[in-house]
């Protein structure tokens, strides 16, 4: 959790130092103000082969979102998705002698609501860096945009 506290002040201090540097410049040219993107929902899909690892990671990701002051939701599928492969024991052996391999994939979903683009990028980077081994992460952003003029 100390890493999160150290990460956020560094980013803010970099921005503050660049702003103070621009104010000391001799030219009076002002940079255009770019508004940050608004993101309605950031959804993370987590998959892996071990349910305990996924549960632990979801707890970490929810805690990280709470430290950022975000609304978070977390849920998981009750049953894993089974994939079974039936193969012959040997290429040169009778069809009766087979082996069956199985993989179980567990899923978990996390949602963060009402955040800005910079907050989403920082949160995603922090969560991705702490992703455990053997766990896949898929992120989906839903951005809020203005209505086009021709639809008003």
TrEMBL record:
Its main location: mitochondrion. InterPro entries: Ribosomal_uS10_dom, Ribosomal_uS10_dom_sf, Ribosomal_uS10m. GO terms for cellular component: mitochondrial small ribosomal subunit. Pfam families: Ribosomal_S10 (PF00338). Residues 43-140 form the Small ribosomal subunit protein uS10 domain. It is found in: Mitochondrion. Keywords: Mitochondrion, Ribonucleoprotein, Ribosomal protein. Belongs to the universal ribosomal protein uS10 family. This is Small ribosomal subunit protein uS10m.
């Amino acid at each position: 959790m100390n890493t999160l506290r150290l990460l956020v002040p560094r980013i803010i201090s970099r921005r503050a130092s660049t702003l103070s540097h621009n104010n000391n410049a001799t030219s009076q040219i002002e940079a255009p103000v770019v508004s940050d993107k608004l993101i309605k929902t950031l959804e993370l899909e987590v998959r892996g082969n071990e349910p305990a690892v996924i549960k632990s990671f979801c707890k970490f990701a929810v805690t990280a979102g709470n430290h950022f002051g975000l609304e978070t939701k977390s849920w998981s599928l009750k049953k894993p998705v089974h994939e079974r492969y039936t193969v012959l024991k040997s290429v040169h052996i009778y069809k009766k002698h087979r082996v069956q391999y199985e993989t179980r994939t567990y899923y978990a979903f996390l949602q963060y609501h009402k955040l800005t683009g910079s907050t989403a990028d920082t949160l995603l980077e922090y969560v991705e860096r702490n992703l455990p081994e053997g766990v896949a992460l898929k992120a989906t952003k839903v951005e809020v945009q203005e209505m086009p003029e021709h639809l008003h």
